Amino acid sequence: MIDKTGTLTEGRPGFDHAAGTHDYEATEVLRLAASLDQGSEHPLAAAIVSAAKEQGLSLAAVQDFDSESGIGVSGTVEGRRLILGNTTLLQAMGIDASPLKQTADALREQGASVMFLAVDNSLAGLLSVTDPIKPNTQEAVKNLQEANIQIIMATGDGLATAKAVASELDIDEVHGEVKPEDKLNLVADLQSQGRIVAMAGDGINDAPALAKANVGIAMGTGTDVAMNSAQVTLVKGDLRGIAIARSLSEKTIVNMKQNLGFAFIYNALGVPIAAGVLYPITGMLLSPMFAALAMSLSSASVVFNALRLRRKT
């Protein structure tokens, strides 16, 4: 199971488009959203704030800022209550986003992430942000699929956006607009079916699922919380590392079995001879010097066999 933003994509999104309802111009939608997003550390928020500053818009202070992890943010700007998030958040707040649904769907089909802005519980506009897919993601996904591993995308972005990215990467199963608890439940459901689940993600909202998965895989370019929750960290955030780690793990298991075999052979031959099993027949006893040499060779064979794994990394 793989998160989208920062895992499949670069995690450095850029502002794309703003649109307002009949009461708000696009620039005002961007200014208010950027003012609110000053309190957020999410990459999408950073893209909106950066775009507003580049356009010379004057940002206002935000008060009572609150983050609905994975689905949006809210706060008070210039005495008005602002909500910025996906469709799930607006529905939870009882806000109708249908006036801009057609515009949002068109942007999502192009792979953009869409956020709706509500002012005092009324729809004000939307903003879209694009996040390019990492250059190595296509190869990484293909390698995992060729290894007969099922890939599931689970993201807080809209379903249409997620499907656009999944279509480009040939990922069949997609879950959009999921909350952190939804990712956690998805991992638990798969495990209840007897599946062995690896979860790859980079954000705070991925942490519960990373901790629950059989193998949690964090991006080294992501948050500290994600890395602390996972068992494996891809230092450079390169998903191709998953296939490499899996291949190396399989070779390590084979190597361990070989080392146990070497140790068994040395002991199976050396211990009986040292105990004098050949003495009644040949009158030969194993010198302590040979016994010490045999033990040294046993250890050396295990070490040198294990060192062969260096060529696999």
Can you offer a commentary on this structure?
With 313 residues, this protein is an alpha/beta fold. A 6-stranded antiparallel beta sheet has the order 1-6-5-4-3-2. Helix 1 packs across helix 2 and helix 10 packs antiparallel against helix 12. The longest helix has 35 residues. The protein starts with 13 loop residues before the first strand and ends in a 6-residue tail after the last helix. The relative contact order is 0.11. The model has no long low-confidence stretch (mean pLDDT 88).
Short account of what is shown:
It is found in: Membrane. With 313 residues, this protein is an alpha/beta fold.
Number of strands: 11
Portion of residues within helices: 40-55%
- Strand order in the sheet with the most strands: 1-6-5-4-3-2
Q: How large is the share of residues in beta strands?
A: 15-25%
Biggest sheet layout: 6 strands, antiparallel
Rounded to an integer in angstroms, the radius of gyration calculated over CA atoms is 28 Å
Count, helices: 12
Q: Which series of helices and strands comes N to C?
A: EHHEEEHHEEHEHEHEHEHEHHH
Which outline best applies?
elongated
Average pLDDT works out at: 88
Structural class: alpha/beta
Spans of at least 5 consecutive residues with low confidence: none
Q: What's the end-to-end separation, in Å?
A: 24 Å
Organism: Neopusillimonas maritima
Subcellular location: Membrane
Pfam families: Hydrolase (PF00702)
InterPro entries: ATPase_P-typ_cyto_dom_N (IPR023299), ATPase_P-typ_P_site (IPR018303), HAD-like_sf (IPR036412), HAD_sf (IPR023214), P_typ_ATPase (IPR001757), P_typ_ATPase_HD_dom (IPR044492)
